[in-house]
Specification:
Layout lengths: L2 H21 L7 E8 L2 E8 L4 E10 L5 E8 L4 E2 L3 E2 L1 E2 L4 E9 L3 E10 L5 E9 L1
Antiparallel strand pairs: 1-2, 2-3, 3-8, 4-5, 4-6, 4-9, 7-8, 9-10
Organism: Amycolatopsis mongoliensis
Protein name: FixH family protein
Length: 130
């Protein structure tokens, strides 16, 4: 193989590798989706890019039609617990809790409470805020 051809191939590989590294999605940008069952309800919890400050959480609830859904963020190891935040209806079986403040990075527990004809239910989802 001629030297100029080898040089062109090496340069092309370096450019492609650099572009892939720059354009590859960051691991922290992934959405966190979890699911749990409590009583007659199945609750799905989604958090896009959990961060310090205001967050929006999406909830899906299957089972008897819930009358109310709330979330309560707790950071047990630091002694932080906040008042429950009501989740607003966002379509059949879907709810959204907006502007939920998480003041610091670390491991949080998000308690989702459901109240409806199937009785009360609670599930706890772990959430890592970076």
């Amino acid at each position: 193989m001629k030297r100029p051809t080898l040089l062109v191939i090496v340069v092309a590989l370096v450019v492609v590798a650099g572009a892939a590294w720059l354009l590859w999605p960051a691991g922290s940008a992934k959405a966190s989706t979890q699911q749990a069952v409590s009583g007659p309800y199945t609750v799905q919890f989604s958090a896009d890019e959990p961060r310090i400050g205001g967050n929006t959480f999406a909830l899906g609830v299957t089972g008897p039609a819930p009358e109310a859904v709330t979330i309560e963020p707790v950071m047990a190891q630091m002694g932080h617990a906040f008042a429950p935040v009501p989740a607003a209806p966002d379509g059949p079986g879907r709810f959204r809790a907006a502007d939920v403040g998480l003041p610091m990075a670390g491991q949080w527990e998000i308690t989702v409470s459901v109240r409806g004809p199937g009785g009360p239910a609670q599930v706890v989802f772990p959430l890592l805020v970076k």
